Amino acid sequence: MNIDFLMGEILTLCIVAFALGMDAFSIGLGMGMVKLRLQQIFRIGVVIGLFHIIMPLLGMAAGYFLSGVLGEVAVYIGGALLAILGVQMIYASLKKDEAPFVTPTGYGLLLFAISVSLDSFSVGLSLGIYGTKPLLTILMFGLFSMVLTWFGLLIGKKVQEHFGTYSEALGGAILLGFGLKLLLPI
Q1: In whole angstroms, what is the distance from residue 179 CA to residue 25 CA?
Q2: 65-101: per-residue pLDDT in tens?
Q3: For 91-128, what is each residue's pLDDT tens digit?
Q4: How many domains does one find in the chain?
Q5: Range of the domain at 134
Q6: If exposure means fewest CB atoms within 10 Å of the residue's CB, which of 14, 22, 143, 156 is most exposed?
Q7: Nearest Cα to 63, choosing from 131, 119, 114?
Q8: Backbone φ/ψ region at 107: left (φ over 0), alpha (ψ -120 to 50), beta
């Protein structure tokens, strides 16, 4: 395998992992406004990181299956899914209702982690169709989302609602860009 190709794939995965983690970051900013102890912040980040490993892994498994069945058309389906997800994230960032749906403790934490990581299932599906390396992908998704969740929660503790909307819109724009890249190869 060509080292340039591998480095390009790693860079691409880092950017996608960052884009997915921005969703967790922006939600973490809002949740950080709730009075949380550092131990809770640590636990929330780890749980969200684990769900950002599990959900794309499930999506990639489904994507590999679809890739074998659909062949070349599968790449365009994956691109369309990424583009739709990006538009959805941008749209969600423009909505004014930013009240947290759940509190990040107990069962609320599990529900919170599932809701934050659902988009990574779709991205995993797209990347599974595209044929990326599963272990590298899920580890990067988990690491980026965990660290960005921690940052969001910690900054949310200190700062009032300045970055949440913009970071989710940035994540959506990145996913939209990668979706368009797959749909319109140059």
Answers
A1: 21
A2: 766 666 566 567 767 877 887 787 778 777 755 544 4
A3: 877 775 554 444 567 777 877 777 777 777 777 777 76
A4: 1
A5: 3-183
A6: 14
A7: 131
A8: alpha
Gap between the Cα atoms of 142 and 158, Å rounded: 25
Q: Which two tokens stand for residue 170?
A: 């940035």
Distance CA 127, CA 148 (A): 21
55, amino acid identity: M
Structure tokens belonging to residue 85:
């997800």
Q: Are 137 and 60 in contact (CB under 8 A)?
A: yes
What's the distance, CA 114 to chain centroid? Answer: 11
Q: CA 28, CA 52: separation in Å to the nearest integer?
A: 14
d(CA 38, CA 165): 24
**The one-letter amino acid at 102:** V
CA dihedral 153, 114, 98, 156 (to 10 degrees): 0
